[in-house]
Amino acid sequence: MAVDGCVSHDGEGIYGGRAVAAGVAAAMTGASPAAVIAAALSVIPMDSWTARSLRRGVVAARREYHDTLAMERGLRSSVVIGGYPWTDLAPEAVALAFGAFAAARGDFRTSVLTAVNMGRDADTTAAVAGALAGALSGAGAIPAEWASAIGPVRGSCLPSMRGYHVLDIADLLTPYDDQLAEPVGLVGLGGAAGAEGTGAGWIS
Predict the structure, then answer these.
(1) Phi, psi (5° rounding) for residue 154?
(2) pLDDT classification of 197: cutoffs 50, 70, 90
(3) Exposed end of the chain (fewer CB within 10 Å): N or C?
């Protein structure tokens, strides 16, 4: 991940990618939402912007609020730097995504909606929150009306992908082997979670 990511990112951008990779890897082992967050924090420097923002977001998400809107505002304000106009920031997006995941206690639909409703880099935060919650609960957690809206790719940007469905690509990336009882694509990466469920095997 770090090798590929350094083509376009550095420093905090790499930390954000590591945190997400470790969190998703831990979620795929069935870890609790708290353990998923701990796995993400375990692979980045504790004094980094990403780690500080992630911790603030998760703490804010766990507070008691009188309604959903108050929770979303509280979480957003705990992470977002007021007056800074640029929203495409890895530490901010990762923190809001993990905060949404924590507030939803890993529920897929609520994680995604919370991330979207907070605005900012909403496509990224919703994708990350959805990846965490989806890895935790599986494809069955995705609302049927959301899944049915996704069809085969039209090939507008990449003609060679025309006709493929995202699930077709997922099957190609992780072909299932009944004898191994785990996706073949993960075997060379130290299993589903790497070192003791922290996802360390995915981010070296």
Answers:
(1) -85, -15
(2) very low
(3) C
